[in-house]
Design a protein that fits this description.
The complex is a heterodimer of chains A (469) and B (1006).
Chain A: H1 2-17, H2 24-28, E1 45-51, H3 57-60, H4 77-80, E2 104-107, E3 112-115, H5 119-123, E4 128-135, H6 141-150, H7 160-168, E5 178-183, E6 211-213, H8 231-252, H9 256-278, H10 285-291, H11 301-313, E7 318-323, H12 332-356, E8 363-368, E9 372-377, E10 388-391, E11 395-400, E12 408-410, E13 412-413, E14 420-422, E15 425-426, H13 427-437, E16 447-449, E17 452-454
Parallel strand pairs in A: 1-7, 1-8, 4-12, 4-15, 5-6, 5-7
Antiparallel strand pairs in A: 2-3, 4-11, 8-11, 9-10, 13-14, 16-17
Chain B: H1 4-9, H2 18-29, H3 31-34, H4 73-79, H5 98-109, H6 128-133, H7 139-150, H8 161-173, H9 181-188, H10 190-199, H11 201-214, H12 232-243, H13 248-257, H14 266-271, H15 288-308, H16 327-335, E1 355-359, H17 363-386, H18 389-405, E2 408-412, E3 416-419, E4 422-423, E5 426-428, E6 434-436, E7 444-452, E8 460-467, E9 470-472, E10 475-477, E11 490-495, E12 498-500, E13 502-504, E14 537-547, E15 553-561, E16 573-579, E17 588-591, H19 592-600, H20 603-613, H21 618-637, E18 639-643, E19 655-658, E20 666-670, H22 694-701, H23 709-722, H24 743-755, H25 760-768, H26 781-786, E21 799-800, H27 803-813, H28 834-838, H29 872-875, H30 895-903, H31 905-918, H32 924-933, H33 939-957, H34 960-966, H35 980-998, H36 1000-1003, E22 1004-1005
Classes of the chains: A alpha/beta (469), B alpha+beta (1006).
Chain lengths: 469, 1006
């Protein structure tokens, strides 16, 4: 932790020489290892559309026409190769293969495979870079989504956004650098839970933790003045606090007091900047045509997508959405349709909107969940109904902007979407590549904890050059 | 070749010490390939071992050539430009600096003397003689001053009594001093003041907070379900242990191995809960073997961090890269913790085996009191009923007439509820409905069995199934599903084992596509589900052919739930049986029991029924029911469960080295043993059988041959008192950890701690009475220049208070703090929706309900700790998440924190309560300052605050409504009705209080 104290003090002493900096976030977050910052940054910010629960790659992107021939037959052991199963299907007598009930088409000039569930994504697929060959280590949700977001299955490590905030600091003068928003899926409202640690700072200083915006009440905790507190009185109180703290600083010489003054000032700014950014009443009708009517309702995925764009416009470094409800163990066809209704239009709208505003070039948009789903049915298989269990060995994500090759489909799985056949991309590789596009060397963005330099990619990860333009 | 000045620039004294100066360089830059880990070792060279010095390289050069140091292979390798020979290789991320190369060269010149890593050397107290010579000053001060002087620092002046008193109180009790503290201090002296603090129960509470963070204590199991758990008995054990000044070695042994004592006391068993504070995964699909490994690894990690300052889990996958802990030794250590009678998963109920049920103090008395009230109430009811004999006879007569002449609806609770997997627990409610208990799976079939000892003469013509409302997590639901609705796939009726066809009657409650009629076909995928928002749903199912029941007939109602989406099982069903006469008369509704008693003319039973049903006895029954409820709840209120350690019976589980740490890749079996480099006792190392157990480990931990436990422990206490440890990485005393800024001081503290019999209060008392602790925190620019991080303590280190102290102090200054000691965790107010936003519906922590006022002002360590959503106001101030062991004391400074102390209703309440205390004083501003900081207000502050106060007075005089709402914070800790005359005064003073409580000097210890 003293690593942090050291740099913070250094920065503060500079700040105090320069007089009180008004942009608290910018100087307080700039303690990241400057050495790791390269001039090669293709992207300035990230919008991470995390689909919690693990969407079925087989029903959305990883088109497997061959599966039709195997309908109801058992997954061959030559494919499964003893792969471990969760205890939910380990006891199943058979593993009947379940082809997707959804139609697939080839979209755009790139001819990307996207199922009829995601027509809007299909339409913009020439802007997207699909990775079909993602794979991960864990097979249960908690370890897997923790791994996706922190690079480690067990709790205690910093989240992706925290690392980025630590390394790059904030470009925003009055908003946090790392904002998180949650929404529940209508496909499966009774869904996998989330945990604060998915946007936590782990062993990094806690100021790097994501700031969760709530969809009801105050957007962030304790943002609003209590009832009975009027703005001008509060303003005078804040001035008095600053004045008395300054006197204290002059006597005690502790630079931390200057930081306290700046943070109180920042808090006051956030009291107006955050309600402003969360108020969509200044959005034209066209926004709701683009993102869908849901975007009018706080707490929906579509609303959060509009918010993501608004925050990106205000230079928020890392916006993380979690959309819950993708865990289709049962009734997959019905549930996944609901999930896609929630997300298809708004995700596509976000990419188009950024593009149209000229922001897609320096913004990475990433869409995906913590693992994939099995080709065989969990529970009874009928022609129009099936479920799919967890599958870590292959799944699909898409990326847009930020220097990722548009119109590319990368990696290939076998006929059962069970194993990766070509160009495997591990989560560590993905994370290394994302950092690379932010101008960061994943081996050099480190923090010393428990005697060693820790990093997001642990001791793994290779930048996947093939998917970069 | 050697530039002497660069060595001085590096800031070391002239003599190079290997352990201090060279080892860290080698470790950082070379150990990855030439360190303790055999699997990645190159060229068979290990620089962590003294023998390397005489090793010969492939080009026949000695690694170290003492005669002509320049010819040493080591020097060649670190200085050459040759791409192949250069070390570290040019593309390696770590490279030596010129200064480091110089140091290594100088070390060889001086004879290349070998030293072990300092922390693995035995603890000795070399400065003892000095202690005797200068007995008038504490050796702690001499050692600090020696170091500070050597660093060219001037020592700060002593601080004022007021500041010292606050510093000591916050350091030892986590609370600011009492109001009369300064007077007491000046009257009785510092020693007596400290003794008073150490004997306060708040001392144990404050110490417990740090220990809870280290021990990853929480009130939920963690992982995705994150259900509630019960471990507060362990937390209270910790508070008591600190308050009774249990020697730290005993404190260690009881928590690590209390269950292995010969006949352990209940308290010693509770203590072992330390090792059950780990998370437990209840996720469907979790593989027990996998999470058993995680549990055991977590125990090793926690143990090693707390007692050995060792980052052991690095060795889970491979030999440690920097410290001499092999992978084999890691699993040998884990073998001590791997024979517990546990499954590795669970985390649904309050405890997971092994656990212990404890009867709490006061149980006997409460039980006899409750029984007495119940007996009284029952007697009163019986007496009242006795006075109503004529009325009763009339009622029986009338009922008998009616059961013979009208249609009947008999409501009945099932005698048994089973599923295909066996019996399922349920609770019978007064209206004959049942509340289904136990797990709520996705799909289940419920067999409800009814016995009719006496059957009506009329035929059974239909059954009516009702789904009645149930309170779950503050919501009224029909099923424990996300939407609160149920979906009944199919209903079947069996009479004496024979299936009777049913037909659903249409109802106004039907929902299109989910009519009750869909529950009578064989298709399991559709079914009956009422419209959204229905509070109570009924459906009538007529028998295709009426049937006469025989006496003793068994009737079974089978409810199939085959939802493929979520848990849509009726939570509180009731079945009523209709026996229809041909004439269609208005049916009489009664329970099947009453019906049987009437038919059998069972006088005694009817008497009882009358007593339960007669409207004339309603009052007496209510009194009786209350007493019965109290009596039932005594058991629940006065018993508590807690998780403990208990060895498996029979064969040991057996521990194996796991290839790359993976649970499904076991290799060689290993046995409980202590890492070789940590002990001189051969009998504890590399055992070949189950000779050692946790008790041996616990005893060795605080035995004299362990060089680490005392050092690591005193370092943590030092960190508590000075903000930073003498070793600033309290979790890592290994080669990669920070070196002590003052090793003689650390070792002296460790030795004297052991010699004192591990006397915790004694250690703390001694430290807070030193000059170092009483130095001013004001820092001169020269001090900041020479020692920017205040490593050498030439002044007292000012820093922000801990999360708990920030909140507790506010409550105490406002006079709101409830000082009740111990008990189940409490739920103060928090912003709504935090749990709901992330939780799954099947978690019992999906909804947060704040507790009553009494729970809002307890000390922070009692706040219910949900791991996936820790209490926000504590979490924002750097409290640990409590998922894994945490021993650091990080302090950040963020805008979110400012919003807490300005706007969180708890803090607003503190300002209001404080204002209320002083609002009738003439010199309120001065007195407030004195009350808060124990010192006279500086002139500038007085001027500024008076101005604010007067302006606010004026403002609130003109706006009484505003003033009223200012002093009645919503969701706060207080509820009060001020008298009119104080509203303005109080509101105006709140503004001053808000300022005071948000000043850095209030939020800091200084």
């Amino acid at each position: 932790m003293n690593h942090f104290i050291k740099t913070r003090r250094e920065i503060l002493s500079t700040a105090s020489k320069l007089g009180l900096a008004s942009t608290a976030f910018s100087f307080l977050n700039s303690e990241g290892k400057a050495a790791s910052k390269g001039a090669s940054a293709k992207a300035k910010r990230v919008i991470y559309l995390c689909q919690s629960g693990a969407p079925s790659q087989i029903d959305l992107f990883d088109h497997k026409p061959a599966l039709q021939h195997y309908y109801g037959t058992d997954l061959p052991e030559s494919i499964r190769k003893g792969q471990r199963l969760t205890t939910m299907t380990a006891g199943q007598d058979s593993f009947p293969l379940a082809p997707s009930v959804f139609e697939f088409s080839k979209w755009g000039e790139s001819g990307a495979d996207v199922s009829s569930l995601m027509p809007n994504i299909g339409r913009i697929s020439d802007d997207l870079c699909f990775i079909k060959s993602l794979h991960t280590d864990a097979i249960n949700h908690d370890p897997a989504i923790t791994f996706l977001q922190t690079g480690f299955e067990q709790a205690g490590r910093p989240s992706f956004g925290s690392w980025v905030d630590y390394a790059l600091g904030s470009d925003s003068s009055d908003l946090p650098a790392f904002v998180v928003m949650l929404s529940r899926g209508s496909g499966r409202p009774n869904c996998q839970p989330l945990y604060n640690r998915l946007w936590g700072s782990g062993f990094l200083p806690s100021k790097h933790q994501g700031v969760k915006f709530s969809s009801h009440g105050d957007p962030i905790l304790f943002l609003r003045n209590p009832e009975g507190v009027v703005d001008d009185v509060r303003r005078e109180n804040l001035d008095a606090i600053a004045e008395l703290n300054k006197l204290d600083y002059q006597q005690s010489g502790d630079g931390e007091i200057l930081s306290r003054i700046a943070q109180y000032e920042m808090a006051a700014k956030m009291q107006s900047s955050i309600p402003d950014v969360a108020d969509l009443s200044d959005e034209p009708e066209s926004t709701f045509e683009l993102y869908g009517e849901d975007a009018r309702t706080p707490g929906t995925y579509a609303y959060n997508c509009v918010m993501a764009r608004r925050l990106a416009e205000k230079d928020v470094r890392f916006v993380q959405l979690f959309h819950m409800g993708w865990d289709q163990h049962n009734a997959l066809p019905k549930q996944i349709a609901g999930q896609c209704r929630d997300t298809d239009q708004a995700s596509a709208a976000l990419v188009s909107d950024l593009k149209q505003r000229g922001m897609l070039d320096d913004t990475i948009v990433i869409w995906g969940g913590e693992f994939g789903r099995t080709a065989y049915s969990q529970g009874e298989l009928t022609p129009d109904n099936y479920g799919r269990d967890h599958h870590p060995k292959c799944f699909t994500m898409w990326l847009a902007g930020g220097g990722f090759k548009p119109g590319l489909t990368y990696g290939k799985t076998d006929d059962f979407s069970y194993n990766v056949d070509e160009n495997p991309v591990h989560i560590h590789d993905l994370n290394a590549t994302l950092l690379h596009q932010l101008g960061l060397d994943h081996e050099k963005v480190t923090f010393r904890h428990q005697g060693r330099e820790h990093r997001l990619t642990d001791v793994h990860g290779h930048v996947v050059k093939d998917i970069l333009s | 070749m050697l530039a002497v000045c660069s060595i001085f620039a590096f800031g070391v004294a002239s003599e190079i010490k290997f352990g201090r100066d060279i080892l860290p360089i080698l470790s950082d830059n070379c150990f990855h390939c030439h360190g303790p880990d055999a699997s990645t070792r190159e060229a068979d060279l290990r620089l962590d071992h003294p023998d390397f010095r005489s090793q010969v390289s492939s080009s026949d050069a000695l690694m170290i050539e003492l005669q002509s140091p320049q010819d040493s292979e080591l020097i060649y390798r670190i200085t050459t430009d040759d791409e192949i020979d250069a070390m570290p290789p040019p593309d390696y991320p770590h490279q030596l600096t010129a200064a480091e190369k110089d140091l290594i060269a100088k070390w060889i010149e001086e004879g290349a003397k070998w030293e072990n890593h300092w922390a693995y050397e035995p603890v000795t107290d070399p400065e003892r003689s000095k202690d005797e010579v200068k007995a008038e000053r504490d050796l702690i001060d001499l050692l600090i001053e020696e170091k500070a002087t050597a660093e060219g620092l001037t020592l700060a002046e002593p601080t004022s009594d007021a500041i010292w008193a606050r510093r000591a109180a916050l350091s030892l009790t986590g609370l600011p001093p009492q109001n009369d503290a300064l007077k007491t201090l000046q009257a009785n002296g510092r020693e007596s003041y400290i003794d008073h603090l150490l004997s306060s129960p708040s001392f144990g509470e404050h110490q417990a907070w740090a220990w809870m963070e280290a021990a990853r204590y929480a009130d939920t199991h963690g992982y995705q379900k994150d259900n509630l758990r019960s471990m507060w008995l362990w937390r209270d054990w910790v508070i008591n242990a600190f308050n009774s000044n249990m020697p730290f070695d005993q404190f260690t042994t009881e928590q690590l191995a209390g269950d292995l004592f010969q006949s352990p006391s209940e308290s010693q068993l509770i203590a072992t809960g330390f090792q059950r504070n780990h998370r437990i995964n209840g996720e469907a699909g979790a593989i027990p073997e996998e999470f058993l490994v995680e549990t055991v690894v977590d125990r090793v990690d926690t143990y090693s961090t707390i007692w050995l300052g060792l980052t052991a889990s690095c060795s889970r996958c491979h030999d440690h890269k920097y410290d001499p802990l092999t992978q084999k030794e890691f699993f040998e250590l884990s073998a001590f913790f791997n024979n517990i009678d546990e499954t590795g998963v669970g985390g649904i109920g309050l405890t997971e085996a092994p656990d212990l049920e404890v009867t709490l103090p006061g149980y006997e008395e409460a039980r006899s009191r409750a029984l007495q009230s119940l007996t009284q109430a029952e007697t009163a009811l019986a007496t009242a009923a006795g006075n109503l004999t004529p009325e009763r006879e009339k009622w029986i007569r009338k009922m008998k007439e009616r059961i013979d002449s009208s249609s009947l609806i008999l409501s009945s609770a099932p005698s048994e509820l089973s599923t295909d997997a066996g019996k399922k627990p349920f609770k019978v409610l007064d209206d004959q409905s049942i509340e289904i208990q136990g797990s709520v799976p996705l799909q289940e079939t419920h067999y409800l069995s009814y016995i009719f000892p006496v059957s009506p003469s009329l035929p059974l013509s239909s059954i009516r199934l009702s789904a009645l409302p149930l309170e779950v997590g503050g919501k009224t639901v029909l099923a424990k599903s996300f939407g609160g609705n149920f979906l009944l796939s199919t209903i079947e009726l069996l009479v004496d084992g024979k299936k009777i066809e049913l037909e659903a009657s249409p109802s106004s409650q039907d929902r299109a596509g989910f009519e009750a009629s869909l529950a009578t076909n064989d298709d399991l995928l559709d079914g009956w589900s009422p419209p959204e928002g229905v509070v109570e749903a009924d459906a009538d199912f007529a028998l295709a052919e009426s049937i006469n029941l025989k006496p003793g007939s068994s009737v079974q109602v089978v409810l199939h739930y085959q939802s493929r989406e979520e848990q849509q099982i009726i939570a509180r069903p009731r079945v009523r049986f209709q026996f229809q006469s041909i004439d269609g008369s208005e049916p009489l509704e009664l329970t099947s029991n009453l019906f049987a008693h009437l038919v059998e003319n069972d006088k005694e039973a009817l008497k009882k029924q009358f007593l339960e049903l007669s409207p004339s006895l309603a009052q007496e029954r209510k009194t009786r029911d209350t007493a019965a409820g109290d009596s039932r709840s005594v058991e629940a209120r006065y018993t508590a469960k807690t998780m403990v350690m208990r060895e498996r019976e029979g064969e040991e589980r057996g521990t194996f080295i796991l290839d790359r740490g993976l649970y499904d890749k076991p290799t060689d079996q290993v046995f409980p043993s202590v890492p070789a480099y940590l002990t001189t006792d051969e009998s504890k190392v590399a055992r070949k059988g189950f000779e050692l157990n946790r008790l041996d480990l616990a005893k060795w931990t605080t035995a004299p041959d362990n060089p680490l436990a005392a050092r690591v422990t005193v370092n943590r206490f030092w960190q508590q008192l000075f903000g930073t440890g003498i070793v600033k990485t309290p979790e890592d005393f290994g080669v990669q950890g920070a070196r002590p800024t003052n090793q003689p001081l650390l070792d002296h503290l460790a030795v004297s701690f052991i010699e004192s019999g591990w006397d915790v209060k004694g250690l703390l008392r001694r430290i807070v009475l030193t000059d170092a602790f009483s130095r001013s925190s004001v820092r001169a620019p020269e001090q900041i220049e020479a020692d920017p991080y205040n490593l050498y303590l030439s002044s007292y280190p000012r820093r922000r208070l801990s999360a708990a102290a920030i909140r507790d102090q506010a409550l105490m200054i406002g006079g709101l703090l409830d000082s009740t000691l111990g008990g189940p965790s409490v739920r103060p107010w928090q912003p709504p929706g935090l749990w709901e936003a992330v939780a799954g519906i099947n978690s019992n922590t999906a909804f947060y309900e704040p507790g009553p006022y009494a729970e809002r002002s307890r000390r922070s360590l009692y706040t219910l700790w949900k791991r996936s959503v820790p209490p926000p106001s504590l979490s924002l101030f750097d409290a640990s998440e409590r998922s894994v062991c945490s021993v650091g004391e990080p302090r950040t400074n963020t805008p979110m924190q400012a919003l807490v102390t300005l706007n969180d209703p708890t803090f607003v309440s503190a300002s209001v309560a404080l204002a209320r205390k002083f609002s009738d004083r003439a010199n309120a501003v001065e007195e407030l300052w004195l009350h808060t900081f124990n010192e006279v207000i500086p002139a500038e502050a007085l001027e500024l605050l008076t101005k604010i106060h007067l302006k606010a007075l004026e403002k609130y005089q003109d706006n009484q409504d505003l003033a009223y709402s200012r002093i009645n914070p919503k969701n706060g800790v207080i509820a009060w009705v001020p008298v009119n005359s104080e509203i303005t005064r109080c509101a105006a003073l709140v503004e001053v209080c808000e300022i005071l409580l948000n000043l850095d000097q209030n939020l800091s210890i200084h």
